[in-house]
Amino acid sequence: MTLHHDEVPVDESVVRSLLAEQCPQWAALPLRPAGSGTDNTMYRLGDDLLVRLPRTAEKAASLRKEQRWLPRLASRLSFPVPEPRHAGAPSAAFGLPWSVYRWIDGDEVRPDTVSDWAALGADLASTVRELHALDLAGATRAGDLSGYRGGSLHPCDEWISGALDDCRRTIGAEVDVDRLDRLWRAGLARPEPAGPHVWLHSDLKPTNLLVRDGRLHAVIDFGGLTVGHPDAEHAPTWDLPPEARHAYREALGVDDETWARARAWAIAAAAGGVSYYWHTFPTFVAECRNRLREIVADAD
Asked: Where are the domains of the chain?
């Protein structure tokens, strides 16, 4: 499945070649597909490892960021996060950096894996509070840590306005896009975020959360790791049922101004996803459509 015009092809034979060349100690282990996202393709390696390969040269920058920062953050967090075991170098078989991580057991957040959504929302709030409380240890909002989700909504206005226009054409019959547009502009009208910068995961959607026995266990995919204001960190709560979202907000005490900006960020990510991936990634588009429906229902 190709999602980007500049995607670098990869399959099991490519991964085998990389392992034989750079990780011969793991080259004979069983290898099988382990899913793919908008940024990476993944393979399960044996029982204890995961191989992640970026789809494009631009996405490779996020993988290098994980290799650099995750070892520094992991020891300071009480919950499991991906542990890089090998930083793969570009080669003739695959011309981009790649990584091998320790496999983390757990289930994605879904209705069949979570029975108490309020408890999950509280767990997620605790995880976010812990991450945001970490000392920046000299990290600043610059270079690979300057992701747009840690900043202002205003630079995204032209892009998101276009994405909302696309949504009117594609899903306007099922979602009140004009209402979403008004909620987006309400977020833009709020005062700019203030306060200290914090560490941000930036993409805490259900597929990046792992649960055990229905409770949050681990957080994965730190490719969007950023230093900045926390507004956008709350946006993926609109991917969750209302009970989880309300418990999350109450546990963190998120004020109305921040929540309005968080909702605008939620609209931005989902509308942008529908627009960009409409013809290429129907599963992800379905996630985005569900988020937009939740936003309208929650506002009502």
From this structure: 12-102, 107-299
Confidence band for 294, pLDDT divided at 50, 70 and 90:
very high
Measure the N-to-C terminal CA separation of the chain; round to a whole number of Å: 37
Supply 50's token pair: 């995961």
Contact of 46 with 102, CB cutoff 8 Å? no
Q: In the 8-state DSSP scheme, what is residue 139?
A: -
SS3 label, residue 82: coil
If you average pLDDT over every residue of the chain, what do you get? 96
**pLDDT score at 3:** 87
Please name which of 39, 42, 68 lies closest in space to residue 56, comparing C-alpha atoms: 39
Fold matches, 12-102 and 107-299 = no
- Give dist(CA 250, CA 254) in Å, integer: 7
Which listed CATH number (3.30.200.20, 3.30.470.10, 3.40.50.300, 3.40.30.10) goes with 12-102?
Answer: 3.30.200.20
The structure's pTM equals 0.95
CB of 200 within 8 A of CB of 232?
yes
**Tens of pLDDT, residues 1-26:** 788 989 999 999 999 999 999 999 99
The CATH number of the structural domain formed by 107-299 is 3.90.1200.10
pLDDT at 2: 87
